[in-house]
Amino acid sequence: MKNFVEELKWRGMIHDITPGTEEELSKGMMSAYVGIDPTGDSLHIGHLVSIMILKHFQACGNKPFALVGGATGMIGDPSMKSQERNLLDEATLEHNVECIKAQLSRFLDFNSDAPNKAELVNNYDWMKDYTFINFTRDIGKLITVNYMMSKDSVKKRLSRDSSEGMSFTEFTYQLLQGYDFLYLYQNRNVKLQLGGADQWGNITTGTELIRRTCGGEAFALTCPLITKADGGKFGKTEKGNIWLDAERTSPYQFYQFWLNVSDSDAEKYIKIFTMLDRETIESAISAHHECPESRELQKLLAREVTVMVHGEKEYENAVKASQMLFGKATADDLRSLDEQTFLAVFDGVPTFPIEREKLFSMGILDILAVESSVFASKGEARKMIQNNGFSLNKEKMTDPARVLNGNDVIDGKYILLQKGKKDYYIIIVR
Q1: Angle at the Cα of 159 (from 154 to 164), degrees rounded to 5?
Q2: Three-class SS of residue 390?
Q3: Is the model's pTM score more than 0.90?
Q4: Among candidate residues 393, 424, 395, 398, the one with its CA nearest the CA of residue 409
Q5: Measuring CA to CA, which residue among 231, 296, 239, 242 is closest to residue 266?
Q6: What is the DSSP string of 184-229?
Q7: For the chain, which terminal residue's Cβ has fewer other Cβ atoms within 10 angstroms, N or C?
Q8: In this model, does residue 83 exceed pLDDT 50?
Q9: How much is the pLDDT for 78?
């Protein structure tokens, strides 16, 4: 088996680690967990770092636990947040938990008979009947306010110039997360908590709680918060997060995100977000340095992550869709796109709504130069069609007297027009 800590080190995936963690791991199979707040019904790529750490943890022969915070999700974590989160109701949280488990199953083995199979736990199960009086008596007395105030997540929140401040609900979050660690330590023999660098304060509150409660020794390991080379926030686009849910972010858009990262980011991300071995990655980076314009490193990164999240078939469809604008895509390739992918590929392309009856009753020249502004004049449109410079739904059109019909409509509502090599337009059939 690979050494878990060494594996993370060369990948650049360790930010902080408590002393003795590596020695404890060397003793045999160990159990660790990552906490995920189910504030939505899909994970996004901001979650991927800690999920990949769990995946490596299991691959190294250890037992991973994914903890969804059904209880803590009702409160919200103040770490690095400028505002308090909206509180979610129980039914919404239950729905979110089920969706998140389905996504985690793409990364972790929950179903085998292996002793290190992954398990999903929900802290709502042990918090729902824990009364406030008992919690404050059993747990609250063990951690001082001074200790809690010393945490960076609390200090940074309180130091911000904000009229909102921090509610008692949020302030208690680190105690609740610390209790999760204590509960799993006592009931599931979990001795290690993994997470992002912003969670260090909450995680070490848990190790301290374990020490003060039962004299036990627990461990912590955090990964760096991922940033882009230009200083921008990783995983964010103009349209928001890159989600793992194909309904929120299509496999094509997902693939495009990774394909379009910078050279320096590609070198960093391929270590963090893939399971490729060191030799393969170093060879790919070396080849990239020799011919960066081919962007083979980005293509490899995009392939590995897209296959892992969406599967081989969706990856192939994403590649096919990516060739639509600049490659040699065919009419069949175009018609094979689902509507979401079609709209994503041609996002920003000029559109012209035309009534169905009108569309099928006039010639193509009127459509291109009168009902739309694809061409400035009918003469210009006729000339380009006759010179083989115009395509309808990825097929060359050579007849300027052509009349459109229902067979030309994609998904019952779209017709794709292409002028020259790069100029696209869409007719929306009403």
Answers
A1: 85
A2: strand
A3: no
A4: 393
A5: 296
A6: HHHHH---EEEEEGGGHHHHHHHHHHHHHHH----EEEEEPPPB-T
A7: N
A8: no
A9: 53
Exposure string over 343-359, b if 16+ CB within 10 A, otherwise e: bbbbeeeeebebeeeeb
The pLDDT value recorded for residue 9 is: 97
Helices and strands in the chain, H and E counts: 21, 13
> What number of residues does the chain have?
430
- DSSP string of 292-350, one letter each residue: GGG-HHHHHHHHHHHHHHH-HHHHHHHHHHHHHHHS---HHHHHTS-HHHHHHHTTT--
119-150: per-residue pLDDT in tens? 999 998 999 999 999 999 999 999 888 888 88
How far is the C-alpha of 62 from the C-alpha of 4, rounded, in Å? 9
Residue 188: CB atoms within 10 Å = 14
Q: Kindly report, residue by residue over 353-399, the tens digit of the pLDDT.
A: 999 999 999 999 999 999 999 999 999 999 999 999 999 999 999 99
Query: Burial, 389: exposed, middle or buried (Cβ in 10 Å; 0-12, 13-18, 19+)?
Result: middle
CB hemisphere CA count around 163 (13 angstroms): 0
Residue 80: the pLDDT is 46
Say which residue, 297 or 90, is predicted with more confidence. 297
> Pick from 291, 252, 285: which is nearest to 269 by CA?
285
Residues annotated as part of the active site: 39, 44, 47, 81, 85, 177, 198, 233, 236-237
Whether the predicted pLDDT of 55 surpasses 90: yes
- Give me the residue label for tokens 């085998």: 112
What tokens appear for 89 in the block? 């109701």
For the stretch 72-108, what's the b/e string if a residue is b when 16 or more beta carbons lie within 10 angstroms of its beta carbon?
A: bbbbbbbbeeeebbeebeeebbeebbebbbebbeebb
| pLDDT computed for residue 163 by the predictor | 59
Token pair for residue 394?
Answer: 């990825």
Q: Phi and psi at residue 62, in whole multiples of 5°?
A: -100, 170
Angle 322-325-327 (CA atoms, 0-180°, nearest 5)?
75
Q: What is the pLDDT of residues 6-43, one digit of tens each?
A: 999 999 999 999 999 999 999 999 999 999 988 889 99
Quote the tokens at residue 267: 């070198």
Q: Give the Cα separation of 87 and 170 in Å (integer).
A: 11
Q: Residue 191 has which token pair?
A: 């001795």
Q: For strand 423-429 and strand 414-419, is the pairing parallel, antiparallel, or unpaired?
A: antiparallel
